[in-house]
Amino acid sequence: MSRLKILALLPLAAALSGCNYVVLAPAGDIAAQQRDLVIISTVLMLLIVVPVMALTVLFAWRYRQSNTSARYEPDWDHSTKLELVIWSAPLLIIICLGALTWMGTHLLDPYRTLGRIHADRAVDQSKAPLEVDVVALDWKWLFIYPDYGIATVNDLAAPVDRPINFRITASSVMNSFYIPALAGQIYAMPGMETKLHAVVNHTGTYKGFSANYSGAGFSGMHFDFQGLDDKGFDAWIASAKSAGGSLGRAEYLQLEKPSQNEPVRRYGTIDTDLYRLILNMCVETGKMCQSEMMAIDAKGGRGHEGLNNTLPLAYDKYARRGTALGPEPTFVAGTCTPDAPQGQTTASIKAPADTAPLLGAGLKRPTFTPLKSSSFFLGQRPKSDS
């Protein structure tokens, strides 16, 4: 290779030196197991790819037209030994990949609680997992710490070697919660809850972002994830509490409005029922929660009476919500329990004991009055009683 070509490749080498191979050097046990899965799968596939590529070059060189000493067999069409190699080797690789995929799918299920925090350390049962509620907004991330009564925007922290239980939802469009150093991506969808169990094993600051395009402000939808020791995490919690600010329904509705490149924000106190209201899409006061609506539907619905159970929206995020029942944006009003008791989460809400069908009052059943004469059916008008 000439010196000119070497000099031309130097800028490319300099650019590659800035790459961060965080997926191959993660900070959490779940991400480390996923890395091992990728490496093992790649090696297994290379066991077929590399020999095939090498043999392609070898055959092209050995049986080139100018090599008159090569063996020439124009009528050759079958070799049992070659057929065994061609079919048995890929079949063994596929069996190994299938077994690896089966085990990885179950052992690395994001809904599965952690059985270990490291390859050589089991979960310490004396330590409660860290609960974090994640809400994907347009275009920012809201993190709620229900056990500590705080919330943050675009700022996430967790102590090392402590299991983390993420509950994930979204306010409008679908996003993807992804911290490459911690675990794989998990989708966030409005009105639905996904889960992720993970752990961070090394202190440091790692990048988190949305891996699913969600609109104009998507490029700024990222945050820092801090892995801290116990003292550092306690100091981080204390700093958040001292930051002041309260996050309730009214504050959330303002925060929910689309905005781009939001700075880090912290709230010292929160509405303990806020995540349940976000998940059930009923943060607006008086709006029927999704769980309440599903419970009514499961018991038979409310009939025609439910058609009039709508109220105008006090706050309309996009000015196009629920316009099917009238010219003004509306929502279904709560009828049974407008608000769940403070502090009650979706996990603590139980199904009603009475499962009998719910019959809506609706319109009254029409009454039938028989005609006095059958002349009506003969094309004649019935005679008046007067």
Protein traits:
single chain; 386 residues; alpha+beta; Immunoglobulin-like; six-stranded mixed beta sheet; five-stranded mixed beta sheet; 7 helices
Describe this structure in words.
This protein is of the alpha+beta class. Among the domains are: 162 residues, Sandwich (Immunoglobulin-like), CATH 2.60.40; 59 residues, no CATH class. A six-stranded mixed sheet has the order 10-7-3-4-5-14. Strands 6-12-11-8-9 form a five-stranded mixed sheet. Strands 1-2 form a two-stranded antiparallel sheet.
What is the CATH homologous superfamily assignment of one domain?
Cupredoxins -  blue copper proteins
Listing every helix as H and every strand as E from the N terminus to the C terminus, the arrangement reads HHHEEEEEEEEEEEEHEHEEHHEE
Query: Largest beta sheet, briefly?
Result: 6 strands, mixed
Apparent shape: extended
Lateral strand order in the biggest sheet: 10-7-3-4-5-14
CATH topology name of one domain? Immunoglobulin-like
Query: Alpha-carbon distance between the termini?
Result: 116 Å
What CATH architecture of one domain do you see?
Sandwich
Structural class: alpha+beta
- Quaternary state reads single chain
Low-confidence stretches: 314-327, 338-352, 373-379
How many β-strands, per DSSP? Answer: 17
Give the count of helical stretches: 7
Can you give the helix content as a percent range?
25-40%
CATH class category of one domain: Mainly Beta
Tell me, rounded to a whole number, the average pLDDT.
80
Rg: 32 Å
User: Which percent range describes the beta-strand content?
Assistant: 15-25%
